[in-house]
Amino acid sequence: MRTRFFSFLTMLTAAGAIMAGTPKYIFYYIGDGMGMGQVMATEAYNRTVLGNNDHLLMMQFPVASTSTTFSASSPVTDSAAAGTALSTGHKTNNGMLGMTPDSAEVISVAKTLFDDGFGVGLVTSVAPDDATPGAFYTHVPKRSMYYEIGKDAAACGYDFIAGSNLRGIKDKKGNPTDLMKYFVENNVAVVRGTDALETIDSRRVVLLNTDSINTGNIGYTIDSIPGVLTLPVMTEACLRHLQKNGRDRFFMMVEGGNIDHAGHANDGATVIKETLNFQEALKVAYDFYIAHPDETLIVVTADHETGGMGLGNNTVGYNLRLKYIDYQKMSKSAFSRYCKSLMRDRRVYRWEDMEEYLTDNFGFWKFVPVPQEQTAKLKEDFERCLVLRNGKDKKTLYDNFDEFSQTVFDIMDKATGLGWTTNGHSGGLVPVYAIGVGAEKFASFNDNTDIPKIILDIVEGK
Q1: Which residues contact 376 (CB under 8 A, 6 or more apart)?
Q2: CA separation for the pair 190, 204 (Å, rounded)
């Protein structure tokens, strides 16, 4: 679907962004780690490589503003504190979910609307017991309390929850827990994989990846893993389920969690492809809005920025060469797993073999220029890290990258013009976009705690 770009005033009037009444259908999209750099890199790729004259869909919404993200304990938030702010309107310390710093429970916008008769669906491309989705139903002092978070998911009453996997089904030693019995006792059907989508007939559903797919997220778009769930597919399934349940009002939270995972890895191509995937999921809500413009509100924001992503470096000057990312056929995580498999293999793997692999999977030398000194660095690190097994891994929040992979992706960054300041979060502003009933209330500068409060004010007709 292609959308036409309207001026601010035209969209406010013609698309019905300012109107009387209150919304019956609320879509709350959170791009985890999606700061200004992530949005603008994707916008630049969309325009200069894909050749689209239309802006990204969220950038076409009539309301575009920004939000601060600091937590109660730090200018740089983690996802738990940010998720709590976005879901409940309360600041808390990093690491805490659904609680204030003094451990007082706070109620999410989803729970408030659920108690008022709204159907509720939560969708994420990472684990549904992760910080952002968890903030909409749990109250725990530590975001790593996956068993307790899972029990809260079972008991929350929400219609639909989807994501990669529930981490509380095993304890820290890898032994099974009794978590699944709580879902059974609460009449929740836990189903796995895309094939299960056609068999969902329970009122309450948790949709997960199959057991054979053991990743912290549903899988990166760039890796094209067969059989994995995708964010657009899960979003459509959630919408259908809420409608099938006869809900005449509903609230949906959709999180693009893979944007954050790729940001922690400093993997620019994967960030861009995940942001585009997030846009595909957003089109599900936008198509629904087009059919119900007088009853729908869509809000898009981020919990924080990840990676300190910047556009431009000393190699490319006043330019970006984002066409090079299309020659990257795998995520940094997938490439690092490949390199580690070579280190475990007893057969001799030659530099010439790696040259061919880098050409086939990253376009090096054939499409992506790799100067002589960078080639020498690659060969030196290959011998030291993969042949002599003398490299040092770099640990990030979600992964552990071998040193040779770091070198490969540093070269990609220099070639494309994308850059990073951290493997963690940064304290930068994040975008806020809105369209539909009451959208104009988000037009001014926001703090993340303002957003759920504004949503409830709009629903209450304030």
Answers
A1: none
A2: 9
